Task: inverse folding
């Protein structure tokens, strides 16, 4: 293969199959859209059927969706079977679904704690566990978890969320240690402040949003399209020798 052909093939994802959790909105929806645009057959997973249908109807590529409650750990193996039905077992798993209860430490309930860790930490692991055998058989797979600014920083009202996202970083490393030898690379993306449903409380306060922008090195908050390049890198052969890493896509917020 010539150098030019090799360079052209680095990001070629045509014919791959991906599962994207949280595809109904926000960064999950953006991830599903960019993968579909890259020629990937995408299965979106979320709780809200109407929003998943809206995503699938507007998706510029081959798509399907599965409505599921990802907080039910015991049901995730069955969900994985549903995900594989439209296009076959996924080559790529994007764990973008997330929950932030924003409870202050003195107000955290067992219910809120468990819900946060089930969605942010348990669901990514048990879905990956169910999908790894097919990836291992092919000798190729990509798992992309979603970390957070709170993987590294403590925010008010973020004790349970930050705990779960700190866990995502270690889970990503442990997944890489376990499965990279089988050709399954696992990495994580840590978004900064992006205007999504999950961060609506931040952006509903213009002064707070502006203050967050000034804390980045670049001087602005993120646009969802800023995630496209990092995501495609982690999903493709361009990242063949990259595993167990957390890439902060935060405009330099954590660099300050």
Result:
């Amino acid at each position: 293969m010539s150098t030019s052909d090799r360079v052209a093939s680095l990001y070629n994802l045509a014919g791959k199959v991906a599962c994207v959790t949280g595809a109904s909105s926000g960064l999950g929806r953006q991830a599903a859209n960019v993968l579909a645009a890259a020629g990937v057959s995408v299965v979106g997973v979320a709780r809200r059927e109407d929003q998943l249908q809206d995503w699938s109807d507007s998706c510029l590529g081959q798509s399907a969706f599965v409505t599921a409650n990802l907080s039910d750990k015991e049901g995730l193996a069955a969900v994985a079977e549903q995900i594989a039905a439209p296009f076959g077992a996924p080559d790529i798993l994007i764990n973008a679904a997330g929950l932030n209860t924003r409870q202050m430490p003195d107000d955290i309930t067992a219910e809120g704690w468990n819900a946060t860790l089930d969605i942010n930490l348990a669901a990514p692991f048990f879905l990956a566990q169910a999908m790894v055998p097919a990836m291992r058989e092919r000798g190729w797979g990509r798992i992309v978890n979603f970390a957070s600014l709170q993987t590294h920083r403590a925010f008010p009202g973020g004790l349970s969320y930050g705990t779960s996202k700190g866990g995502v970083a270690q889970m990503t490393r442990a997944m890489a240690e376990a499965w990279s030898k089988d050709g399954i690379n696992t990495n994580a993306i840590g978004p900064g402040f992006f205007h999504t449903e999950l961060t609506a409380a931040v952006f509903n306060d213009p002064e707070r949003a502006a203050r967050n922008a000034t804390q980045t090195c670049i001087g602005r908050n993120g646009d969802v399209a800023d995630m496209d390049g990092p995501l495609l890198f982690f999903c493709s052969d361009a990242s063949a020798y990259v595993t167990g890493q957390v890439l902060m896509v935060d405009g330099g917020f954590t660099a300050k």
